[in-house]
Amino acid sequence: MKISFLLNKIPMKVYVLQRTQRIPADLNSVWAFFSDPANLPLITPPYMRFRILSPQKPERMYAGQIITYHVRPLLGIPLFWMTEITHVVEKQYFIDEQRMGPYAFWYHQHHFQEISGGVEMIDIVHYRLPLGFLGRLAHALWVGRQLQGIFDYRYQRVEERFGTYIFVQK
Q: What is the rounded CA–CA span in Å between residue 84 and residue 104?
């Protein structure tokens, strides 16, 4: 019996990571920053050596846009990652989906909403690792914590750029 056949019979787990961050800035500034792929290296931990491979981007993000990267999440080994921006509603949300890369499935929603004193940004990532049991083991031992760490780093970098949100009741 082939090992690939066995791995295909093991149920795959879809994980969900959700983060909310309140940003003390106007919606135009927050949208401009997050909808520009050139800013991704600024909010990605340096050890990942994130590098955009795609040529210059158009002025505006659009559905169907393909963005390619190299990322080094483990032992400095470069991995190719291609995402497609599949949905865009200006200043409300956009969605990127992995087309090629380290995950068996990657669906990342970025939501933006004006709130008192700034913008609430919500990220929802649905993802699945390849290799069945081995993927679940890798998630338990390393991948889950690494993704949490990446989003923790991003949270800190966004606060450094825009400031810390302080709710003031009127």
A: 15
pTM of the model: 0.88
Bridge-based pairing state of the strands 93-100 and 105-115: antiparallel
Q: Other C-beta atoms within 10 Å of 75: how many?
A: 5
Give me the long-range contacts of 80-85 (CB less than 8 A, separation at least 24): 83/108, 85/61
- Could you report the per-residue pLDDT of 31-63, keeping only the tens digit for each? 999 999 889 999 999 999 999 998 877 778 899
Of all helices (H) and strands (E), which one includes residue 154?
helix 144-162
What is the enclosing helix (H) or strand (E) of 127? strand 118-128
DSSP state of 32: H
The Cα–Cα gap between 59 and 66 comes to 14
The tokens describing 115, both together, are: 């709130």
Q: Can you give the pLDDT at residue 9?
A: 54
CB 170 within 8 A of CB 116: yes
Structure tokens at 119: 């913008």
Each residue's pLDDT tens digit, 94-152: 999 999 999 999 999 999 999 999 999 999 999 999 988 898 998 999 999 999 999 99
The answer to whether the beta carbons of residues 14 and 127 sit under 8 Å apart is yes
